[in-house]
From TrEMBL:
Keywords: CBS domain. The keyword ATP-binding does not apply. Pfam families: CBS. This is CBS domain-containing protein.
Amino acid sequence: MKKRTPVSRIMTSDVITLNSTNGLETAELLFKEHKIRHIPVVKGDKIIGMLSYTDLLRISFADAVNDTDGDVDTVVYEMFTIEQVMAKNLVSVSSSTTIKEVAEILAKKEFHALPVIDSGKLVGIVTTTDLINYLLEQF
């Protein structure tokens, strides 16, 4: 295993994002459509937060109702904005941060995704799943 491998090797660079003006229903659709669990929230080119699928589950019954009965979610989602639900105090890394450093951050913190930012611009996202897949490739 290479010790100085940059996170850019394993990060997702084609990032799905949400705008702070999007609704939570839009967020849920993106989570399900793209089979992802974390979406950076942006205002213009600047990242202002991170929304996780777990954040939605905390305020709704997203997994408790089937896809044909979405009325419960819609009512709950209209009570909150993305900015009220998202994580705001983000830890981020640059694309040159090593995979080892990213693993150390994620191992110590209570979140499972980090935005990758270069020169103030969102260039990717790295998750615990990316790390696990990288480790599996090493065997």
